[in-house]
Write a structure and sequence with these properties.
The structure is a single chain. By secondary structure, the protein is mainly alpha-helical. It has two domains: about 55 residues, no CATH class; about 80 residues, Serine Threonine Protein Phosphatase 5, Tetratricopeptide repeat. Helices cover about 55% and strands about 0% of the residues. The chain starts with about 40 loop residues before the first helix and ends with a helix.
């Protein structure tokens, strides 16, 4: 599978040290967030088990948008979202585990979180897991599995993955 070097992106994309190379960068889910309103309202909804609100609050803490930036709090919120079945929370926590934000760097845990995200229908989770299989980080290197995951990411709407299937 030929890969085009990925650009160095800022904003909602977490960068890995190899930005600009043909090796992997893990990206956050780009699906729209739940609109739970103010931080306090999101926190209340998260406390009642609304996984989308936990995810949205995690994004706010990670980025410092409308909440104090705290990677540790973001990781806890993504974990709650993931445990409640929100695949974007699984993916974003996987990105944080992969690069060690808000906790210990752990490629194996990142790959497992990407698997949960992908199984839950998150295209970016499938794409991130494909990159791990391509690089052999946290999983045994497997080009065939990487290709399958890229195809799944494409079928779920990831344009970057679709460009790699040509």
């Amino acid at each position: 599978m030929a890969r085009t070097p990925l650009p160095c992106l800022v904003g909602f994309i977490i960068l890995l040290p190899r930005c600009g190379s043909a090796t992997a960068t893990a990206a956050h889910s780009d699906l729209p967030m739940a609109d739970c309103g103010a931080v306090d309202a999101c926190a209340s909804e998260c406390d009642t088990g609304k996984s989308g609100s936990c995810y949205a609050l995690g994004v706010r803490y990670e980025t410092g948008a409308d909440a104090p930036q705290s990677y540790a709090d973001a990781a806890l919120l993504y974990d709650r979202a993931c445990a409640a079945g929100e695949p974007r929370g699984c993916n974003n926590l996987g990105v944080m585990r992969e690069i060690g934000l808000g906790g210990i760097q752990d490629y194996g845990a990142a790959a497992e979180l990407y698997r949960r995200a992908c199984d839950g229908g998150d295209a970016q989770g499938c794409s991130n897991l494909a990159l791990r299989y391509e690089d052999g980080l946290g999983v045994t290197r497997d080009s065939r599995e990487a290709r399958k995951l890229v195809q799944r990411a494409c079928s779920l709407g990831n344009a970057t993955a679709c460009a790699q299937t040509d």
